[in-house]
Write a structure and sequence with these properties.
Oligomer: single chain
Protein name: DUF1825 domain-containing protein
Number of domains: 1
Structural class: mainly alpha
InterPro entries: DUF1825
Strand content: under 5%
Shape: elongated
Helix content: over 70%
């Protein structure tokens, strides 16, 4: 079975995409959240990023041609911005850590 035909892969892709969209919409109101709301948002973002990291690792480890092609396309697209998937995850992590620090500073 091809990588993208897997029901597990399709379900996780749909859940990740949906969760990401919801968090981005919610994030537009981040400045209006109280302290606990901000903490919860950061936690949800961290969870989503970890799920995304695992999902991408599945692509990298797959022997499926389409999965390998997808990884290469992502690397090419990120490369246009001087990034790799690894640096993308590092920057996202740094952003979330900065958000946590700012939250702690206001405590």
């Amino acid at each position: 079975m091809a990588f993208f035909e897997s029901e597990i892969v399709q379900d996780e892709a749909k859940r990740l995409f949906g969760d990401y969209q919801q968090l981005m919409q919610l994030g537009s109101e981040y400045g209006k959240f109280d302290r606990e709301g901000k903490k919860l948002y950061i936690e949800k973002m961290e969870d989503m990023m970890e799920r995304y990291r695992v999902f991408m690792k599945r692509f990298e480890l797959s022997e499926d041609f389409q999965a390998k092609l997808t990884v290469e396309q992502l690397r090419t697209q990120l490369g246009q911005f001087g990034m790799t998937p690894e640096t993308m995850f590092q920057q996202m992590h740094q952003t979330l850590e900065r958000m946590k620090s700012e939250l702690e500073a206001t405590a």
